């Protein structure tokens, strides 16, 4: 797993960053265990063994939630984003758009929020000068300053 190791020299990292890394790696491990137990339980033909595996799965979910709660308590950004997304109503992908629209005082809705967020600078997801195709979804970071998946590889 690529996240097991630090990506920068330890002496350059704060204690807070090291602790956050430990929490994130632990969360990843718990989520993997949940997936493994779910698959094993679903494939299992012995009812008693299935019950044991499902019990283990529930324990792993508990462990994952403890890691998430630690991150919420100890990381401002996690705390902020959990407050926005967890327990929200409606389509999950529209939660961010509604949040951005509210910050800008724009009408809620994905298109309105995207237009308001783009402002005079255009859509950050499209290269300059490239026109949007009707109904096309942007490629790359959803907003300025966001990192795409794998964008730090090789950095």
Q: What does the overall shape look like?
A: flat
Strand tally: 0
Average pLDDT confidence is: 78
Number of helices: 5
Structural class: mainly alpha
Multimerization status: single chain
Summarize the model shown:
The chain is mostly helical. Helices cover 57% and strands 0% of the residues.
Describe the structure.
Helix 1 (15-43) packs antiparallel against helix 2 (47-74), helix 2 (47-74) packs across helix 3 and helix 4 (92-104) crosses helix 5 (110-118). The chain has five helices and no strands. Residues 112-130 and 132-151 have low confidence and may be disordered. The longest helix has 29 residues, at 15-43. It is mainly alpha-helical. Among the domains are: 10-85; 92-121, no CATH class. Residues 108-119, 134-146 have a biased composition (Low complexity). It holds the Pfam family EncFtn-like.
């Amino acid at each position: 797993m690529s996240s097991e190791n630090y990506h920068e020299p330890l002496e350059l990292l704060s204690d807070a960053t090291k602790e956050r890394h430990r929490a994130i790696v632990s969360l990843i491990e718990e989520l993997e265990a949940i997936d493994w137990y779910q698959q094993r339980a679903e494939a299992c033909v012995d009812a008693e063994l299935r019950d044991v595996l499902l019990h283990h799965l529930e324990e792993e979910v508990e462990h994952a939630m403890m890691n998430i709660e630690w991150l919420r308590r100890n990381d401002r950004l996690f705390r902020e984003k959990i407050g926005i997304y967890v327990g929200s109503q409606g389509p999950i992908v529209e939660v961010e758009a509604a949040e951005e629209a509210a910050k800008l005082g724009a009408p809620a809705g994905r298109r309105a929020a995207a237009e308001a967020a783009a402002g005079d600078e255009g859509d950050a997801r499209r290269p300059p000068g490239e026109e949007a195709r009707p109904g096309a979804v942007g490629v790359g970071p959803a907003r300025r300053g966001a990192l795409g998946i794998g964008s730090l590889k090789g950095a």
